[in-house]
Amino acid sequence: MSKVKVAVIGCGTIANSAHIPSYLGCPDAEIKYFCDIIPERAEAAVAKYGCGKAVVDYKEVLADPEIEAISVCTPNKMHSIITCDALRAGKHVLCEKPAARTLPEVIKMQEAQHETGKTLNIGVVNRFNDGVNHIKRIIDSGELGEIYSVYVSFRAHRSIPGIGGAFTTKEIAGGGALIDWGVHYLDIVMYCTGDPAPRTVSAEAFCKLGKDIANYNYTYMWAENTRDVNGTYDVDDSVVGIVRTEGPTITFNGAWAQNIGENEQYIDFMGTKGGIRLYYGKHFEMWSTKDGMLTKTSFEYNSKNHFQTEINAFINCVKTGEKAPSHIDTNIITAKILQGVYDSSEAHREIEIN
Ligand SMILES: NC(=O)c1ccc[n+]([C@@H]2O[C@H](COP(=O)([O-])OP(=O)(O)OC[C@H]3O[C@@H](n4cnc5c(N)ncnc54)[C@H](O)[C@@H]3O)[C@@H](O)[C@H]2O)c1
What we know:
- It is built from 10 helices and 15 strands.
- Helix content is 34%, strand content 25%.
- The protein is an alpha/beta fold.
- A hairpin with a 3-residue loop joins strand 11 and strand 12 (275-279).
- Helix 1 crosses helix 9, helix 4 packs parallel to helix 5 and helix 8 packs across helix 10 (328-347).
- It folds into 2 domains: 4-122, 3-Layer(aba) Sandwich (Rossmann fold), CATH 3.40.50; 129-303, 2-Layer Sandwich (Dihydrodipicolinate Reductase, domain 2).
- Nicotinamide-adenine-dinucleotide binds at residues 9-15, 35-38, 41, 58, 73-76, 78, 96-97, 123, 125, 166, 180.
């Protein structure tokens, strides 16, 4: 069977660290285009990886009938537009997380997927993580009993990315700590607990520590190359909230930046028979009882590269039409929660989610 011909739209950090190497590592895929509005980035990819053609306009890629699938690795502002155009041009799409800036944009993506029947997966890569899948199997088996409550912490001391740049500009990113980090954590919770429908949200999002861009102190800044002291900072750098679902109640506390020196990044699944703490991106621990005694089990494992697994799963969807766990139909649930958090914060009250 011939290889699936793909194009990578947006040749920045995530494209170079995850999508491109994973396509190169997938025996069933072949990269034909690198596309970036900054021509040097697309050209650098051609030179570095020794394949494909460099282009600046994604519509050139969509006009090529040979291209079957694309990765959308642009800033969030372009996710919905490029994805909808690509689906309607007959291409399968893997779009980076968050699906888009707002729920209405995500709904447009889902409508385009339903209309065309092409694959649309979102880059919620933890659904392809071995540890996360292990936890899901434990929860599904009933070993923890009923999961009635989940606490999510995605807090860091000073970790605002590229302050003043695309990540901190609402018009481009749609939001800050919640939409950039929280999206991964909430997605893990939804996945492991069976994607329960959300009912209500009460939340507050704060734009505090990064507002004075010039005087923001930090020791390390990721996406530093997009930093701009004269730029915009109008997104949440911390957020707290509670989400009631048809399954567990989820409480969360997230911060790109806070005046507490600890980085606390974990998810606690509280069940009637046992509980699990997942250290984000790392191992997990389980508390339970056996023969009348309390037990604690630490799970150590060697995880496969989840980006490679995600890309392999996407190419499999393209070839077989199978639905992956990261399909837009499941991702829309998290998109509703994200929108609910921002709406609740703006209204300063609890809101219902339909
Ligand atoms: N899955 C993850 O864990 C993860 C990690 C990092 C980033 N991301 C997501 O990936 C996306 C990109 O983030 P990044 O850190 O790589 O950003 P980046 O700024 O490093 O790269 C984005 C690239 O897209 C290009 N671009 C912008 N508009 C374009 C257009 N219309 N056509 C073609 N190219 C265009 C930019 O020039 C830039 O080179 C974001 O949505 C981000 O949330 C996901």
